[in-house]
Amino acid sequence: MPKYKGQLEQSVELAVFQTRLATALNTLRKRKRFKMKDVARRVGVSNTYMTKIMRGQANISLSLLYCFCRELDVPVTDLIGTWADGSADEPERSLNDHAQNAPAEKTAASS
């Protein structure tokens, strides 16, 4: 087996992951009715880099991923553990479940 095949497979998997992550981030951003430029400012990236992230063309750091999750109010584990890694069959539903449960959790915590 050629040596480059392993690297190619990893490259394809990373590209698929980046695309799924971008789709998840865009879905959450739109659901909250945030503009891309506002999210970019809040997480500390340029508008150009934000566009690349949202197109799945950028490899972001863990700290930046954490900033996105904090701003979009979604746990990192929900974002990458149920959708971006492909483990959820219905990504929209898993994100909807989080969105529906989040206000109830905050209300219960404040009581």
From TrEMBL:
GO terms for molecular function: DNA binding. Residues 25-79 form the HTH cro/C1-type domain. Residues 87-111 are annotated as: Disordered. Coiled coil: none annotated. It holds the Pfam family HTH_26. CDD domains: HTH_XRE. This is HTH cro/C1-type domain-containing protein. It comes from Phyllobacterium brassicacearum.
